[in-house]
Specification:
alpha+beta; H-NOX domain; 5-stranded mixed beta sheet; 7 strands; DNA-binding
Length: about 350
């Protein structure tokens, strides 16, 4: 998964370059409402698909680099505020490494001391690097630079070297203009080597007390993410997306950015399996839909992901000991009785 701030930055880039973000989000299978939900995530595969579409529609393979011009300061949400309150850029970069899980999974990052300065690097986990479009890497690198510019009030730290994992493009003029330093392509990781002295210059937004408070909150949020069980994550995804299309085990594993086998093993370790979790979610949703008379039985069957109404009928016999129509009628009678009792008590 990747933080929705990545998608927000992509939307800012698209709109800044005159592209229709709503159409591209829809084609990538991303619900735009996720951008209004604090701390939300989207599957890496969907984010990669979006950036591939941005390149396809724009016809510009280097469009990701233009994220520097269209940088969105609020995209990082909590982590962005932690970085803003840091004493200097070095401390801000250390925050990214320390709280990386808040940005998602499927990648790692670090800081390494070198004779010429301090290198910030990040790399995708092998399972995902094979499908990552160049535009994703370009947008991330340009966004890092954009954030540094915004954080320092246009006083950019000096860059000594920038590494990209993809092969050298035929045209690197935009790279040279943007980074103005030595460039290396085909590297094992993406990285930016900063001049150390520039990184230690105080930030005008620095606030030690706020940094401590936000750091505590960031650690709390990380603990919450780590404490979420595999079955709880599957249940949340099914509740959100079951009505939108197929939700088999392979699809859910892709949303979680894990292999089908890893998902299966995680559920077994918790004493359950995918079929059981899916059945629980369907029963929970069925009770809601049958109690609220908005949809007919055929539509409810569709919303629960059943291919045939007969499968929904059999499931209700197993869950409630009666067909869905009779169960709905029973719920309606109970609601009438409860309303009558309440009316009598008020007289």
């Amino acid at each position: 998964m990747v933080h929705a701030g990545f998608v927000a930055q992509a939307v800012n880039l698209m709109e800044g370059e005159g592209l229709d973000s709503a159409v591209l989000l829809q084609r990538a299978g991303i619900d735009k409402s996720v951008l209004q939900q604090a701390g939300s995530f989207v599957p890496l595969a969907d984010a990669f698909r979006l950036m591939a579409l941005v390149v396809e529609v724009s016809g510009n393979p280097g469009i990701g680099l233009r994220a520097y011009r269209h940088y969105l300061p609020g995209g990082l949400q909590l982590l962005g505020h932690v970085m803003m309150s840091s004493a200097n850029l070095q401390q801000a970069m250390q925050s990214v490494v320390q709280y990386l899980p808040l940005l998602g999974s499927g990648f790692v990052a670090g800081l390494s001391e070198e004779a010429d300065g301090l290198r910030f690097w990040f790399a995708g986990i092998a399972e995902y690097t094979q499908v990552r479009p160049r535009s994703v890497e370009d947008m991330l690198m340009a966004s890092i630079l954009g954030f540094c510019r915004w954080l320092t009030g246009n006083h950019l730290p000096q860059l000594r070297e920038v590494e990209f994992t993809y092969p050298q493009p035929a045209d690197t003029a935009e790279h040279q203009r943007l980074f103005a330093c030595d460039l290396k392509f085909g590297a094992s990781r993406s990285s930016i080597l900063f001049d150390r002295q520039r990184l230690l210059q105080p930030l005008s937004s620095s606030n030690e007390a706020l940094a401590l408070l936000l750091g505590d909150f960031a650690r709390y949020q990380m603990e919450r993410l780590r404490g979420t069980t595999c079955s709880a994550r599957v249940r949340a995804l099914l509740l959100e997306r079951l009505s939108q299309g197929p939700c088999d085990m392979e699809t859910v594993a892709r949303w979680m950015n894990v292999s089908k086998r890893t998902l299966q093993r995680g559920l077994i370790e918790e004493g359950t399996n995918f079929k059981s979790v899916l059945d629980e979610v369907r029963q929970q949703l069925a009770s809601y839909y049958l109690r609220h008379r908005t949809y007919n039985l055929f539509r409810i069957s569709e919303l629960l992901g059943f291919k045939e109404s007969s499968s929904f009928h059999k499931a209700c016999l197993r869950w409630y000991g009666m067909p869905p129509g009779r169960y709905r009628a029973q719920l309606f009678d109970e609601q009438l009785c409860a309303a009558s009792r309440e009316l009598v008590s008020e007289m």
